[in-house]
Amino acid sequence: MRFSSLQHLTIYPIERRTEGAQETLTVKLKNHVLLSPGAINLDDASRARLQAVIEREPLALIDYWAVDPDYDGKVFRSVWQDYRGNTASGQDELRVATQALVTTSAKAGPRKVCVRAVDVFGFEAEVVSTVANWTLPVEAASQRLAAGAPASDGQQSLSIQ
Asked: What DSSP state is assigned to residue 147?
């Protein structure tokens, strides 16, 4: 089944940090574009209000979004999600959080992350990003550099945060 959409979703580059056997991914929504607002059955006044929201705050149209940190390209397995009305994280009940901190098992090599969103009209969109580099915490990076380890082992890059 193909995931089709009348919207387009973009995210910022995903930050990846590892701490022992755990890894934290920071996923931030960047933009949401309703590709065919004319396809929505609205009167002129409502269409004008929708256009104003699209121009001012496009992420406000997202009703629900989820993250799969190990997307296999076939089955989406959500391990983090947020939805309009969820105030547990201190967010405005009329908006979703625009950043997710996803903790999962550490994994060597690239990680394919899939983000899916549904807007208030029920249109779905997804974006898939391959995150190739480890980002080590300051302590681990300092220890590696102090031990004379190279900045790169050929598969993972080293950066101090």
From this structure: T
- Helix, strand, or coil here: 33? strand
Q: Tens digits of per-residue pLDDT, 119-134? A: 988 889 999 999 986 5
Give start and end residues of each alpha helix (H) in the chain.
44-56, 138-146
- Catalogue all structural domains in the chain, each as residue range(s) with its CATH number: 7-135 (2.60.40.10)
Backbone angles phi, psi at 51, to 5 degrees: -60, -40
Cα 30 to chain centroid, rounded: 9
Q: Tokens 């405005």 belong to which residue?
A: 92
CA–CA gap between residue 95 and residue 61 (Å, rounded): 8
Distance, CA of 76 to CA of 69 (rounded, Å) = 9
Q: What is the DSSP string of 115-141?
A: EEEEETTS-EEEEEEEE----B-HHHH
In the numeric block, which tokens belong to residue 39?
């396809």
Q: What is the pLDDT of residues 68-115, one digit of tens each?
A: 999 999 999 999 999 988 877 667 777 898 999 999 999 889 999 999
Its pTM stands at: 0.75
